[in-house]
Amino acid sequence: MGIYSLVTGRRGASGFGSASTAEEVTQGIDASHLTAIITGLETARVLAKRGAHVVIGARNVGAAEAAKREILKHNSSARVHVLHLDLSSVSSVGSFVRDFDSLHLPLHLLINNAGIMFCPFQLSQDGIELQFATNHIGHFLLTNLLLEKMKKTAKESGVEGRIVNLSSIAHNFTYPHGLRFDSLNDVSRYSDKRAYGQSKLANILHALELSRRLQEEGVNITVNSVHPGLILTNLFQHTALLMKFLKYFSFFLWKTIPQGAATTCYVALHPSLKGVTGKYFADCNEVTPSKLARDESLAQKLWDFSVKLINSVSSKIPHYSPPGSKSV
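RE: above sequence
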């Protein structure tokens, strides 16, 4: 799926393309037997429309509650919960999982969607470069803390679990060696664009390594990553004027919000992807990511680095047990 397909909307092998919308790619799919945790509002709307029990994790609870009211306005039978989640804080991630557990729900789908982009250098409250903390570490921890629940659900229900990481084509534009393991917080060499690319590369590598581990374990859960496309959302808050200027001259490359949620919804729900795992998708079709994003040894190194980083601040996480222990 190249520039021609993006501009023309030409459909790929899946039958969908860049012009497809989230509602189109999920047409006729009954998700009423599924419970999903989502950190993205348009995806939540469409999954709720297809009958899924949706739990929205949001830093801005007011905006999420407004989205919930809008969903219920058009679908009074929709099942939607809103829980506070600040992905830049390991404490908040732990609290979110505790709050979700209190709902006593199964968990079939986890869609790691939320993120930040191109922000000036700053550290999270846990002392981690903010884009890496929010876009990767927060989702890495959230996934690990929910994994036993997903395994239990998949085993008891016989329904395949699916984890979807939102990455970006920006994973190609990262630091020279991909990930700055030894200088993550080095402000002197910080680039807001490359730091974003680094975090998006981490999203793909996380999915790749987790997929490998779950396959090795024989667990009925798939893990994939997606590029949603160029969408003018509040992700661009730090470069809003620049992005509006660029969009004026490249309007044919940009997607609407319903189009931007299509690939995520396709990978999360479409029956044709049963058993497909460790892959990367764009415009609702499987594509090949960068060489670094396919580096299995780099994926394993990132996993170990992430675990070590989280363990260094684990005292802030409610009821946290390091990976490998039996409790969550």
